[in-house]
């Protein structure tokens, strides 16, 4: 744990391998490959997956007599394939051979994965291997492997196999195994030089082409060797066998440089041409690695968060920064993709994009605003589809899908398998219409952080107002209450999708959904006010928004119905009070793990719909997403009384009724508990930190990271523990002074100004490093200070 820029695993542990693979995934925001062993094939122990950002394919399967279609995140051809054997020996296989020592290190500072081990074959021939791998952050189409191989006690002929394997299927998620998993057509293969091979694969339905070209070279010191090379091909697979005589005690190096292109790329003729060209032009491993190292260092300069040196938490925080940047980076800009909730790290949730960006964008906004803009554009390009979806259910405006993939249609699976019971059950979580509010929230916060008026008035406003139109048409006016209501939806808590004993789907007046809709109305009116007048006219005309609509929005923003259980406790939805209390203790005794209560109950023939038991924060999301001032304003606008007592009573009520079946839930709890119970807030934060590293859900991390929770932990440090708040007038910093965390240092970009902040107990050091204007306003503990370019100021904080 000394070096908290790396994660080191000792010993070959087959049972842990799939988890390690996920956590050692290398990517560059364009493509990513799991940290599988080069010599491995998909089996019980290994799963070498390669994923392309936006690389989806649809396939149909018959389940229980019904044809269902899913859009999957395609596992593309495996470019890692590299293996060796001594003459007449067996190919390297860590599961069958003697491995006296094994070490695997994810070096996050340099973005490399290193494996070092010794292996002994049946004849007692011992070989030491050091493998180093990169997926270049700088040259996004290049990935490379470097092997140093030493025959320790033998001399003779060494055979190396370097291959590209297109015969892969999607097999990472056991729950999906009964579904169609073949997404690639048999690939074409070609030898493209003495030591170079090529493979071209195509997805079956979406017809995405992926081309891979690989060059494999052998060296002894600086001298390039001329091994005997033979090339073998069969359908979908091509390999080169390199034979060379080696001597005991001498180290040989091997470089496999791979060029990867897809038909989704820009500035290409054909992916095949580009892949071949790129591998010809790429230099030696060291050069590629040096360029990659510089690019990754640049990312660290922007994104690192320092807390306590040498601490495990520091290491895990960096792991979270690292994996966020493997999933999305400057290479992602312009790619027409969103952020998959499970990273580019596995096939869990099929690479789909949910509302998790709400947890992810606050960190990106303050460091990589161009990236967030591009990710928001993913939604803009799918606005037409969202309009169609709204019209299909008889509504106006735009209704974004709960799960989004290639073209923005609803991708939530229709049926899912409960592994606890083996039953296929309908999935009704698509009724989470609150996703559209999350998109609106992301648009607004991007604007607030960047002051990008151009984006707001053009793309942002069009999406935002379309979402407002949708919500307005979703509401019905209840004359008796003189309040607006929203019916037939599901809140963030996915355990409740309908009323018990009702055959109608959805719930009425989910408080979170209603309050968010009211916020959207109010913000939409504000946006209409602040954008340029000509744009306002254009949009009103294009979207058919009338003055009467604006009046209606105003009315809704003031009179949206929010159900309450008593004076202080908000009801998660209307009728929640009629549900039964859940026997938590009895279930904790009966089962080892009740995180996924939905699965447990279904396997017993029961349903969580009957109980006051939530999967994750729902009502409490409101206190997470909005600052105190904002939520006070929203409540005031709604004519509701807001008090600290209300917040604390809601926390206490729902804390006792939440199973944290989603890793996102802990992020929210850490945040909202901060003011009321520092210890519990910290415990929740530490749980977020270990959730993927220790795979606390017992098997979900091998299917991909949980990026919302990872990025959420980073956001907790900046906005909760450092007290950073983005305002229109200033960047506010008001650290809560915690017992658990006294040192934090980070850098943020606020409205085109780079600001370094470091907290050391009660001392706060702020530097206005560089920016587009010579001045920036920074508020510390309630008072605004105007900083000049280059200015450094120290503050001593009051309790
Ligand atoms: C959570 C959702 C989340 C999704 C993807 C689900 O388990 O309930 O809130 O968006 O995972 O991370």
Give the key terms.
26% strand; 4-stranded antiparallel sheet; globular; Maltose phosphorylase, domain 3; single chain; binds beta-D-glucopyranose; 799 residues; Beta-galactosidase, Chain A, domain 5; alpha+beta; 10-stranded antiparallel sheet
Itemize the secondary structure elements and their pairings.
Elements: E1 6-10, H1 17-23, E2 26-27, E3 31-33, E4 50-52, E5 56-63, E6 66-73, E7 82-86, E8 98-107, E9 112-120, E10 126-135, E11 142-151, E12 156-165, E13 184-193, E14 196-203, E15 209-220, E16 223-224, E17 228-234, E18 237-246, E19 252-262, H2 271-281, H3 285-303, H4 312-327, H5 357-365, H6 369-380, H7 383-392, E20 415-418, E21 423-426, H8 435-450, H9 453-474, E22 475-478, E23 483-486, H10 511-530, H11 533-542, H12 547-559, H13 584-590, H14 597-603, H15 621-625, H16 628-637, H17 644-655, H18 664-673, H19 678-690, H20 707-721, E24 724-726, E25 731-733, E26 743-750, E27 753-760, E28 763-771, E29 775-780, E30 783-788, E31 792-796
Parallel strand pairs: 25-29
Antiparallel strand pairs: 1-8, 2-3, 3-4, 5-6, 7-12, 8-9, 9-10, 10-11, 11-19, 12-18, 13-14, 14-15, 15-16, 15-19, 17-18, 20-21, 22-23, 24-25, 26-27, 27-28, 28-31, 29-30
The structure holds beta-D-glucopyranose (BGC).
């Amino acid at each position: 744990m000394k070096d908290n820029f790396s994660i080191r695993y000792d010993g070959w542990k087959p049972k842990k391998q799939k988890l390690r693979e996920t956590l050692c995934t290398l990517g560059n925001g364009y493509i990513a490959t799991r940290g599988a062993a080069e010599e491995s094939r998909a089996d019980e122990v290994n799963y070498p997956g390669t994923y392309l950002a936006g690389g989806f394919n649809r396939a149909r399967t018959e389940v229980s007599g019904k044809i269902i279609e899913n859009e999957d995140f395609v596992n593309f051809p495996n470019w890692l394939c590299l293996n060796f054997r001594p003459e007449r020996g067996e190919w390297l296989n860590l599961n069958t051979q003697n491995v006296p020592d094994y070490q695997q290190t994810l070096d996050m500072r340099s973005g490399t994965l290193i494996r070092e081990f010794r292996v002994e074959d049946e004849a007692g021939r011992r070989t030491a291997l050091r493998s180093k791998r990169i997926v270049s952050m700088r040259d996004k189409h290049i990935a490379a492997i470097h092997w140093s191989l030493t025959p320790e006690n033998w001399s003779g002929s060494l055979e190396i196999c370097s291959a590209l394997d297109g015969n892969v299927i999607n097999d990472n998620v056991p729950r999906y195994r009964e579904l169609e998993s073949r997404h690639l057509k048999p690939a074409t293969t070609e030898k493209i030089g003495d030591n170079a091979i090529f493979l071209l694969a195509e997805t079956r339905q979406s017809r995405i082409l992926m081309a891979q070209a690989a060059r494999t070279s052998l060296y002894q010191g600086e001298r390039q060797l001329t091994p005997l090379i033979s090339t073998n091909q069969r359908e979908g697979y091509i390999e080169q066998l390199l034979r060379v005589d080696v001597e005991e005690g001498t180290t040989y190096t091997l470089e496999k440089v791979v060029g990867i292109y897809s038909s989704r790329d820009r500035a290409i003729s054909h992916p095949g041409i580009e892949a071949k060209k790129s591998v010809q032009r790429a230099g030696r491993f060291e050069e590629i690695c040096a360029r990659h190292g510089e690019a990754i260092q640049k990312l660290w300069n922007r994104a690192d968060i320092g807390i306590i040196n040498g601490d495990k938490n520091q290491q895990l925080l960096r792991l979270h920064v690292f994996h966020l940047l493997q999933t999305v980076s400057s290479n992602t800009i312009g790619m027409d993709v969103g952020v998959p909730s499970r990273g580019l790290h596995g096939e869990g949730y099929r690479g789909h994009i949910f509302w998790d960006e709400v947890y992810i964008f606050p960190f990106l906004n303050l460091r990589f605003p161009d990236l967030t803009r591009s990710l928001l554009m993913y939604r803009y390009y799918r606005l037409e589809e969202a309009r169609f979806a709204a019209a299909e259910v008889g509504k106006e405006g735009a209704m974004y899908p709960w799960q989004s993939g290639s073209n923005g249609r609803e991708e939530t699976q229709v049926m899912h398998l409960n592994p606890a019971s083996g039953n296929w059950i309908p999935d009704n979580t698509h009724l989470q219409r609150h996703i559209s509010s999350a998109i609106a929230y992301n648009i607004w916060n991007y604007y607030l952080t960047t002051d990008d008026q151009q984006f707001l008035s053009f793309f942002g406003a069009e999406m935002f107002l379309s979402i407002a139109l949708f919500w307005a048409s979703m509401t019905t006016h209840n004359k008796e209450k003189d309040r607006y209501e929203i019916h037939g939806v599901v809140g963030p808590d996915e355990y409740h999708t309908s009323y018990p004993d009702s055959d109608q789907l959805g719930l009425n007046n989910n408080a979170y959904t209603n309050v968010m809709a009211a916020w959207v109305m109010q913000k939409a009116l504000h946006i209409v006010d602040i954008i340029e007048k000509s744009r306002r006219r254009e949009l009103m005309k294009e979207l058919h928004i009338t003055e009467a609509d604006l009046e209606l929005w105003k009315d809704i923003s003031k009179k949206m119905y929010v159900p309450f259980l008593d004076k202080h406790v908000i009801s998660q939805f209307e009728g929640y009070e009629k549900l039964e209390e859940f026997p938590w203790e009895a279930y904790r005794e009966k089962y080892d793990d009740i995180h996924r209560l939905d699965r447990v109950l279904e396997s017993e023939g029961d349903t969580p719909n009957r109980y006051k038991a939530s999967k994750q924060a729902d009502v409490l999301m409101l206190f997470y997403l909005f600052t105190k001032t904002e939520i006070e304003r929203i409540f005031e606008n709604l004519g509701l009384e807001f008090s600290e007592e209300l917040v604390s009573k809601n926390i206490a009520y729902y804390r006792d009724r939440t199973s944290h079946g989603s890793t996102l839930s802990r992020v929210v709890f850490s945040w909202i508990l901060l003011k009321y119970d520092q210890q519990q807030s910290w415990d929740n934060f530490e749980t977020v930190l270990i959730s993927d590293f220790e795979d606390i859900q017992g098997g979900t991390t091998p299917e991909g990271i949980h990026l919302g929770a990872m990025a959420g932990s980073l956001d907790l440090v900046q906005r909760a523990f450092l007290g950073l708040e983005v305002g229109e007038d200033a960047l506010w910093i008001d650290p809560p002074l915690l017992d658990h965390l006294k040192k934090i240092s980070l850098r943020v970009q606020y409205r085109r100004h780079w600001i370094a902040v470091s907290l050391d107990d009660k001392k706060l050091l702020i530097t206005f490093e560089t920016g587009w204007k010579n001045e920036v306003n920074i508020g510390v503990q309630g008072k605004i200070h105007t900083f000049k370019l280059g200015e450094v100021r120290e503050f001593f904080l009051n309790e």
